[in-house]
Structure prediction request, 274 residues.
Amino acid sequence: MFLVTGATGNVGSEVVRHLRRLDVPVRAFSRKGLPRTDGALPVPGDLNDPASVASALDGVRGIFLLPGYQRLPETLARCADAGVERVVLLSSSSVPGGERSNAVTRYMKESEEAVEASGLPWTFIRPCAFAANALQWKEQLAAGDVIRAPFAHVRQATLDPYDIGAVAALALTSPGHEGKAYTLSGPESLLPEERVEILGDVLGRKLTFVGQPDDEARAEMSAQMPAAYVDAFFRFYVDGTLDESKVLPTVEQLTGRSPRTFRTWASEHADAFA
Ligand SMILES: NC(=O)c1ccc[n+]([C@@H]2O[C@H](COP(=O)([O-])OP(=O)(O)OC[C@H]3O[C@@H](n4cnc5c(N)ncnc54)[C@H](OP(=O)(O)O)[C@@H]3O)[C@@H](O)[C@H]2O)c1
Prediction:
């Protein structure tokens, strides 16, 4: 039995999908307890509450864990008590060489450190920015054909959560991944404008990209997330402390096939923009 946290989200639903393809039993953990993927048992619970996670652990061999939740050391102690044999932690490509003074990097590092300190066998998955971040454009696409987005000059080799799910399922179910940290990227390095163009092509719409001035981006992001995280993203993408433009071989090395393109992600998720 495997427990997948964040199971209704972009990444967790793909972890569930890949595990179910391997025909292993899966519990799909989220607050609402509604799996997007068939064949997994939905389990409602709160990652900030170790007792809630513990109640889903009966018979669980491996857990896929999201980072950044409260009381993680206690949750991991409950995992150890329940006989969990593997933890696959979703982390971030900002961790290697990243500064603890950056709030996003810090919560990722602290999550990794808690997992290491737990004594449980672990694998860390450190993805770069997700292709699924384009879902942030849904509202603008519903209102018209113009996408305003921040960090116009920043190239990212965005990663399809499908590929994160594939690597996580491998790390949970096959040997040789213990104590490994995998930094993952997608297959091509694209500017936001290029992703908008591909998305428009897939949707059959002529979209126009407008790069947001930094002050407009900061004001918009500040309405959506704490100031420390806004600062963190500005340090990544304006100060240039994080380079997610490199195409890495990791997904292909682990899965035996190329990571999915942004075009494939957009085609698979075109309905989300309808
Ligand atoms: N976006 C990126 O580019 C990027 C890059 C590197 C790492 N990451 C990390 O990846 C994580 C997952 O991303 P995602 O796109 O898959 O997120 P997402 O689509 O927003 O999904 C979040 C999932 O977590 C569940 N959840 C939220 N709060 C919870 C709680 N307190 N207890 C239990 N379940 C909870 C949600 O379901 P319910 O609402 O039903 O609880 C949902 O299943 C991010 O949070 C971030 O830490 C993101």
